[in-house]
Design a protein that fits this description.
Blueprint: H1 2-29, E1 39-42, E2 45-47, E3 55-56, E4 58-62, E5 65-70, E6 85-88, E7 93-96, E8 98-103, H2 105-113, H3 123-136, E9 143-148, H4 150-156, H5 162-166, H6 174-177, E10 185-189, E11 194-197, H7 199-204, E12 215-217, E13 223-228, H8 232-240, H9 246-262, E14 265-271, H10 274-285, E15 292-296, H11 302-307, E16 325-327, E17 330-333, H12 374-386, E18 391-395, H13 398-415, E19 423-426, H14 435-441, E20 444-447, H15 449-455, H16 459-468, H17 474-479, E21 484-486, H18 502-511, H19 531-538, H20 540-545, E22 563-566, E23 583-588, E24 591-595
Parallel strand pairs: 1-6, 2-7, 8-14, 9-10, 14-15, 15-16, 17-18, 18-19, 19-20, 20-21
Antiparallel strand pairs: 1-4, 2-3, 4-5, 7-22, 10-11, 11-13, 12-13, 22-23, 23-24
Helix pairs in contact: 2-9, 15-18, 18-19
The chain binds zinc ion.
Zinc ion is lined by residues 102, 104, 271, 489.
């Protein structure tokens, strides 16, 4: 062994000498960087989101940072070393990686690896979706949830007769038994009034031939698998559902991470539970995390988090600053959602004349959530602030938003400073007089443009034309100098599915139409904003919203290398083509985490 070692060593040394001489010679001709780049993206149309160099051609990346941003007439040679990967972008469009200001990560992964039946209201669709999920899961794993019929319900709308509404689609176990023999299944419809158990699930609960109340039977007296809520039968079934294993939950996380990387998203602001926080830490420790995570724990945890010495920007275990996994703002809720007439309004819903919406547990002690207790929320926000956290609070209806502005105003007066970094989340419908109040407080409006592509189906039916003028009013917010933060709310609610791919949000904000391009010219088209404004709300503004716009959110030397490459130049194409855009490459912390295979 030693002989071989020696004979190999000698010539190698010689090679180094030669290399050194060549290097010396070449240095005398062209200067080279002492530390060569790891990755160079060149020949692209780079939209930097930096005012003093809005467009560039090449990005030089060394380790996890951008080391240079070069114009077309500047050579990359200075940065190129023997091990530098050079990617010729062939004119592709490059932006700072997208930052999604609002996701429900755990639920999103659950929807990818589990049943998503929001749009399903017939046998074939149900079967196909259950078959898809069975192929992902191991035998014996339960399939639950699904939320079938949501879109069927909303499509019928308030104008549909009560008769038609009662006549909703009711699946039976026989529709899915063939495809789910080895996976006990307990699905529910969108508002959790009815459930469907397959034969494997009924067997597990000893209900196959049972005669318990809450179980539907067909004309021949056979158990159909349809079970009604609040029934002894449902309780029996629930008791035997096998909880998801740790491995299954991690697999769901992995599926969600993959989907994010494929969509050019480099960071999420996640509405997070303590259990999911642990999984983020585990994935990060394993080197599997491909998206930065800004964790938003529930506002009610403020006292506990303060006591345990946590603060914004700190890793949940080490309590050290960390750019991958760290606590962000507290997430609060003031009112319900439009999807179930729960958002708070000053005037009642047009289609439910007695209903003004509801408070939430953060803002009410009333079991019916009709009486407010704003002090409850205020105190948590203040405790959070004392621990070094800002709050981001959900407010959807005009009254929800207005009450939130009141609450923040009280806080600003108490603290004697503006509320930089505090957010109002959703802001779906705003009264004209409330728009200017955001800037006075310096709060951010976190908005969900894609919701409008979906919600416009029933918006005017529920709140009428006048109030709809202030719905998703992004242009009015911009005109009032409000910082916009774009957020998907992925994967959605029991009423709607919300896309996370940035093209959907940009399309909705710029065109204000459904994905099918209706209505012509856009819904309340005076509220359209530009692609530039949309990109800003998706990149640098969201870095600012996490107090990190100094280290990321734009393409600038010295910043973290978080980058998305798109196949279409969103600034130059016709806005009607935005939905045709695909992500070609996603880079997070200098590493390529997704690359489209175009072969
Ligand atoms: Zn949400």
């Amino acid at each position: 062994m030693s002989i071989i070692f020696k004979t190999q060593h000698a010539p190698k040394f010689k090679n180094y000498l030669t290399l050194f001489l060549i290097l010396m010679l070449s240095l005398s001709c062209t200067e080279r960087s002492e530390i060569p780049a790891d990755l160079i993206l060149t020949n692209g149309e780079v939209y930097t989101m930096e005012e003093d160099q809005p467009w560039a051609s090449s990005i030089v990346i060394t380790d996890n940072k951008i080391t240079a941003v070069l114009n077309e007439d500047e050579s990359i040679d200075f940065w190129k070393g023997d091990h530098t990967r050079v990617v010729d972008l062939n004119g592709k469009f490059v932006v700072p990686g997208f930052i999604d200001g609002h996701v429900h990560f755990r639920g999103a992964g659950g929807f990818i690896n589990g049943a998503n039946l929001l749009k399903v209201s017939e046998e074939k669709g149900l079967q196909a979706e259950i078959e898809r999920v069975v192929n992902i899961l191991e035998d014996g794993e339960w399939i639950t949830g699904g939320l079938w019929g949501a879109y069927e319900q909303w499509a019928s709308g308030a104008s549909a007769s009560e008769e038609k509404k009662k006549d909703v689609w009711k699946p039976t176990r026989w529709m899915i038994d063939d495809v789910s023999a080895n996976n006990p299944t307990l699905l529910n419809n969108y508002n959790r009034q009815i459930y469907l158990a397959n034969t494997a699930a009924l067997k597990a609960a000893g209900l196959e031939d049972a005669n318990l109340s809450g179980m539907e039977k067909d004309a021949q007296g056979r158990v159909t698998g349809l079970i009604y809520r609040d029934s002894p039968a449902l309780e029996k079934l629930r008791a035997v559902v096998k909880p998801k294993s740790h491995k299954r939950l991690l697999d769901e996380n992995r599926a969600a991470l993959k989907a994010l990387s494929e969509s050019g998203i480099v960071e999420i602001h996640d509405i997070v539970t303590p259990e999911q926080t642990d999984r983020f830490v585990e994935l990060h420790d394993n080197g599997e995390l491909t998206t930065r995570v800004w964790l938003r724990p529930d506002l009610s945890r403020a006292p506990e988090m303060k006591e345990n010495g946590f603060s914004m920007g700190l890793h949940p275990v080490t309590k050290e600053p960390n750019s991958w996994v760290r606590y962000g703002a507290f997430k609060g809720y003031i009112d319900g959602i439009m999807g179930n007439h729960g958002a708070l309004f000053f005037e009642p819903y047009d289609d439910q004349p007695d209903n003004y919406g509801r408070y939430r547990q953060h803002t009410s002690d009333d079991p019916n959530l009709l009486e407010p207790n704003m002090d409850k929320m205020y105190n948590w926000i203040k405790i959070g602030y004392e621990a070094g956290f800002v709050s981001n609070v959900h407010a959807i209806g005009t009254k929800g938003v207005s009450l939130m502005l009141d609450t923040y105003e009280r806080l600003m007066n108490d603290l004697g400073r503006d509320l930089e970094g505090f957010r109002i989340i959703h802001n779906q419908v705003i009264r004209p007089e409330d728009f200017p109040r955001f800037q006075k407080l310096n709060v951010i409006a976190e908005v969900n443009p894609y919701h409008l592509s979906d919600d416009m189906r029933w918006m005017e039916e529920r709140i009428g034309y006048e109030r709809s003028k202030g719905a998703y009013a992004f242009k009015s917010l911009l005109d009032n100098n409000v910082t916009l933060s774009f957020a998907s709310d992925w994967p959605g609610t029991m009423a709607a599915e919300y896309h996370m791919h940035p093209k959907y949000l940009i399309h909705a904000a710029v065109n204000r139409t459904t994905v099918n391009g209706t209505p012509d010219g856009g819904w309340f088209q005076e509220q359209k904003i530009s692609v530039h404004e949309a990109l800003k709300a998706y990149t640098i503004n969201n870095a600012y919203a996490a107090f990190e716009d100094d280290i990321r959110g734009s393409i600038k030397a010295g910043k973290l290398a978080d980058i998305a490459v798109c196949d279409l130049n969103l600034i130059k194409i016709d806005p009607s083509d935005i939905l045709n855009m695909n992500i070609e490459m996603t880079i997070v912390d200098g590493k390529v985490v997704f690359e489209r295979n175009n072969d």
